[in-house]
Design goal:
CATH topology: Four Helix Bundle (Hemerythrin (Met), subunit A)
Number of helices: 5
Order of helices and strands: HHHHH
Number of strands: 0
Strand content: under 5%
Helix content: 55-70%
Largest sheet: none
CATH architecture: Up-down Bundle
Mean pLDDT: 83
Low-confidence stretches: 1-9
CATH superfamily: HPT domain
Shape: elongated
CATH class: Mainly Alpha
Length: about 140
Amino acid sequence: MTYPMEPGSSFKTFNLDYLLTNLGGNAGAAKRLVGMYLNNQPALLSSLDQGISNADLRAIKQAVHDIRGSCVLFSANACLVLARRIEDGLRQVAAEEVPSGGVLGDDLMADCLSLRQAVVAMGEELRTVLAVDLPGTD
């Protein structure tokens, strides 16, 4: 049987080989981690959405930090690049400099929205890992 998402397959948003290597090739553990992440993904996105809608830089910073942690686990480079860029931007902007009325800078807003899209795309691809039997699954 051919596994459409077996190690070595091409993913756009994350690196299955990286995850499996870090888990000693244990596909069962990889699937469990993917499942845990997918269960937590709605909360991550909700936190980011709330931070954006409230122009709450501290909430955005925490949400991006949490997202980045997951991105590192899955070697999701597009998410990592965006998360780091947002974190760098947040370091340059003090919370009191956000204009009243909750308007974020255009670049920060665009990066946050792009990160959200990248996280959603990663989740969609990660679901494919759960849908197949990978060699080594226990």
